[in-house]
Amino acid sequence: MRILLTNDDGIFAPGLRALRRELMKIGEVIVVAPATEQSATGHSVTLNAPLLVTEVFDDDKTPLGWAVEGRPADCMKLALLELLLEPPDLVVSGLNAGSNAGINVLYSGTVAAAIEAAFYHHTAIACSLEYTKDAQLDWPRAAEYARQVVEQIIGHKPVKGSLFNVNIPPLERGPVKGIRVMPQNVSVYKEKFDRRTNPRGRTYFWTSPEFHCPEPHPDTDVTALAEGFITVTPLQFNLTNRPMLAEMGNWSWDLGE
Fold first, then answer.
1. Which of 20, 44, 105, 228 would suit a FRET pair with 217, their CA atoms being 20 to 30 Å apart?
2. CATH classification of 2-248 is 3.30.70.790, yes or no?
3. How would you classify the pairing of strands 2-6 and 28-34?
């Protein structure tokens, strides 16, 4: 099995390295990932600058893959269209530092890379690890959990283009309770901005790291993750509102005289 691995934390991130070691137990792993951190870049792509690519080697001098000076979606496009000699059997994005549950999937570069792969009809799995403040992250154990979930997903032979979002709860809180297949939470998150004034009297803002969901919908990825379960959510990138589409088909449209 050929596995294409990417992320949004950068090619040298410990989560990617740990997940690579685990995925190598089930197949050949090729890495194409951003050269630098690209967290919360969503599905943006680079249009007005060249995408510089550098081959990267592992500690033992064996080829690891390519570092791309671009976004996660850029990495996936280049990997699938230019860099890989053969198409991958599976695409995995992660292991991300921080959960990508609820509406975070809309901002996540990790999930965006997986979505891009699904565009091209490849089965894709985004994997993320939630953590508490100042925690010492156990990347090897988290990567082992991620690999087990990946193996179980592909064991069911999903159709090409299937897209999955996996979130692992904070390991420092205690043992993982199990795996749950849950829908995405879509309730509002609480956000804050730190308002400041620079020496020239101009107002500016820092985005606060406090980004949480005070009232999540019950029985969703956010609630299950908080209860200590690994969550698996099947996603789709077709944003069409089908019921509204059907209703609007009966509307009368007029451009005027």
1. 44
2. no
3. parallel
Q: 157-161 long-range CB contacts below 8 Å, 24 or more apart? A: 158/123, 159/123, 160/121, 160/122, 160/123, 161/118, 161/121, 161/122, 161/123
- The model's pLDDT over 136-169, given as tens digits with 9 standing for 90+, comes to 899 999 999 999 999 999 999 999 999 999 999 9
Q: How far is CA 96 from CA 51, 124, 157, 221, 245, in A?
A: 23, 15, 24, 16, 36
Cβ neighbours for 218, distance < 8 A, ≥ 6 positions apart? none
Q: Tell me the C-alpha distance between 23 and 195, whole Å.
A: 44
Q: Two tokens at 144?
A: 């082992």
For residue 166, list its beta bridge partners.
127, 232
Domains of the chain, residue spans: 2-248
Longest dimension (CA), the chain: 73
Residue 89 structure tokens: 């059997």
Rounded distance between C-alpha atoms, residue 91 and residue 84, angstroms: 12
Structure confidence by residue, pLDDT tens digits, 173-222:
999 999 999 999 998 878 889 999 999 999 999 987 776 777 788 999 99
How far is it, in rounded angstroms, from Cα 84 to Cα 53? 13
Taking all residues of the chain, what is their mean pLDDT, rounded to a whole number? 94
b/e 212-232 (16+ beta carbons within 10 angstroms → b): ebeebeeebbbbbbbeebbbb
Task: Note the pLDDT of residue 62.
Answer: 87
Q: Measured at the alpha carbon of residue 46, what is the angle toward residues 43 and 50, in degrees to the nearest 5? A: 155
With a CB cutoff of 8 Å and minimum separation 6, the contacts of 219 are: 182, 183
Q: Can you tell me the distance from the alpha carbon of 20 to that of 94, in angstroms, rounded to the nearest whole number?
A: 9
Measured CA to CA in angstroms, residue 191 lies from 103, 176, 178, 221 at distances of 12, 28, 30, 19
